Each structure stands twice: as structure tokens, then as C-alpha cells.
Amino acid sequence: EVAELGHYPHFMIKEITETSEAVRTVAAMPGSVFAPAAERLATADIAFCGAGSSHYVCMLGQYFFHQIAGRRAMCHSADEFMNLASLGDNGALIAVSQSGETYDTLRVMEQAQADGAALVAVNNVAGSTAQRMSDFPILQRAGREVCVLSTKSVISQTAIVWRLAAEVAARAGGAEGADMADLNALAAQLDVLVQSLSPEIKAVAERYRWIEHWFFLGRGIHWPVAAESALKFKEVSYIHAEAMPAGFLKHGTISLIDEKFFTVAFIPNAAHDPESFAHVVSSLHEIRARGGNIIGFGHDLPSVFADGFFEAYVELPSVSKFMDPMIQLVAGELFAYHCAVKLGRNIDRPRALAKAVTVR
Ligand code: AGP
């Protein structure tokens, strides 16, 4: 492993840097990788399942299928799936798992298979149990991920799920928001983010690493981004962060806000989604009105925010609407990484965590 690390201090940052390559790999996959699964999904009752970060990829998939393909998809975390849902013989389960060995996910796959549903598996490990048992195995080919935290594999899974949504949409005669060139444009901007903006994100993370309580907020396709980013931040920094949809805040948790409370906001591009943008703006104003502090990740913010509104703001590279969650996810990964490095955490093997949870 030491040799593989090269000049990087940790596998986590090495693997974050490799994300753009993982995206290019997905962009270069021929349509035939996705077509058989898409053919089945086109007429099936669709469900997603995954655990931890892979669950949040599934949540993104749920938005992609709805917004790109006009298809409703169920999505439950693998550990709760069977308490909530079952699939019949017209079902198709999209099971997402980096390792392909996660106990909870494999149990859901087994049950779905027994019920006659088709299995689509998205995995990074060739020959894994999930790949072998599925009807439509899709291999991520993101390269080995050594760090316990999923980084490049999460983005690669997201790109694959987006391609599946695009293939399903194409079968229904439309695929707005599914231009294949977008993935290559994303890869180029990921390089810009990791190479040029990492120092800026590092400075913010170092300045605020002592904050003990955080909200991570997003809306629409940025809500799974907030959820995954908070998970990553907690895993590696050991600091408490609570993720929620921006619109949920006013239903209770806003009472936590005071001048000691910090929020990370994943702000959608106003040009892509003016409605979500307006909702997020309103939530952030409510936080500021109560003395809360905000770190914003966004693009071309219109002048709805006064100078000094943000404690810190990072302008992210602009990409198309459905690529933006992937840019924002990597910004969140960099924030978690730099914060944890400064705190002296065990970056590649955080306490109590294993790369794959293969037991009940
Ligand atoms: C990710 O950073 C975590 N270590 C964890 O949530 C992980 O995503 C989860 O255990 C699922 O693993 P899998 O993708 O291999 O199934």
C-alpha cells in the first residue's frame, strides 16, 4: 500500500484526486453496458437500495429517475428496506455497493431475487457477490479504493446511475438533462476543483474545525449531497453534523440555531433550478436572522446575499444541472478531509469503521 500512495499523504486525497478519471471511465463506457438493464427498467417497478454512502447515491438516483426519465423509483436504506417494501416479479432492484459485499444490501438482493424481481448491481469490485448474483451487473471500474471512506467510488456510482436514468429516458422518447458530453465536462471541472480550489476549501476547514455542531443543508438533488457530505464529515472528523433538507429546518430544528451553530449549505445554481434556489435562500436568511453562521458552496450567486452574509463562501466550477451534485459532493469531501487532517484524525482508517460491513 505504501508504494501505491505515491506522493500523497493519504489515500483519501489520492482517491479524491482520481475522481475525474473515474468519471471519464463511466463516460467512455459503451451504451451496451447500460442497455440491457435499461430495457428491463423501462417497464419495471423500480427500487433502489444501498447502505451508507451508497444509499445516498441511491437517493440521487431516485431524483435522476424522476427528473430525467419521469419514472417513480422507491428508495430505502438497505438496513430498513425489508421493513418497508417488497418487490414483485415486475420489480427491478438497483442495488448500489462499492464492495458488493455489504451484508444488508446482499440480504435485500436475495429477498428481491426470491420474489422474482430483476437485479441490477452497481459495484466497484469485480467478481464480488453482488456482481455474481445480479442479472445486470455493472462494474464501476473506478480503480481500487483503499481509504475506508468512499470518495471516487461514490461519484462513479452517481455517474452510472445518471447514465441508467438517461438510457431509460431515451427508451421513453426523451432524455432532457442527459447529454453524454456533460460527464466529460464534469471530469474537467473536477480537476479544476481538486487542483485549484482545494487550498481555499482547506483554509475554510482549518478555520472552522473547532466548531462542534453543524447542519448540512440542501434541497432537491442537493439534499442527498448534504446527507452524504455530513456522513463523510462525521466519519473522518468525529464531529457532530446533522443533514437535512433545507425546507425541513423550519419544522423544528431551527430552534437549535444561535451564534455558535454553523451550517454548510450546498446551494443549487439559480440558473438551473430557480425554485430550489429561492427556497434555500429563504432558509439561509432564517438562519442568519437567528445569528447562525453559514459556509456556502455555490455558483454565480445573484445579489440576494448581502456582503458578509456568509462566514465563508466557495465559488464552485459550473457544470450542467445533473452534474452539479457531483461537483458539490467532491467539495464536501475536501472539506471533511482538510478538517480531519488538521484535527489529527486517522484519515484512511477512522476509528470503529471497516471498508465493508459484511456482518449483520
Ligand atoms: C462510506 O464512506 C462508508 N464507509 C460507508 O457508509 C459505506 O458507503 C457503506 O458501508 C456501504 O458500503 P458499500 O458501498 O461497499 O456497500
Write structural notes for this entry.
By secondary structure, this protein is α/β, with parallel strands linked by helices. It has helices spanning 2-5, 11-17, 19-28, 35-41, 53-67, 78-84, 103-114, 129-133, 152-171, 181-208, 222-237, 274-289, 324-342; strands at 45-50, 73-77, 91-97, 118-123, 136-139, 213-218, 240-245, 262-266, 293-298, 312-315. Strand 8 (262-266), helix 12 and strand 9 (293-298) form a beta-alpha-beta unit. Bound molecules: 2-deoxy-2-amino glucitol-6-phosphate. 2-deoxy-2-amino glucitol-6-phosphate is lined by residues 51-54, 97-99, 102, 105, 148-150, 235, 353, 356-357. Keywords: Aminotransferase, Glutamine amidotransferase, Repeat, Transferase. This is Glutamine--fructose-6-phosphate aminotransferase [isomerizing]. It is an enzyme of class 2 (transferase). Its EC number is 2.6.1.16.
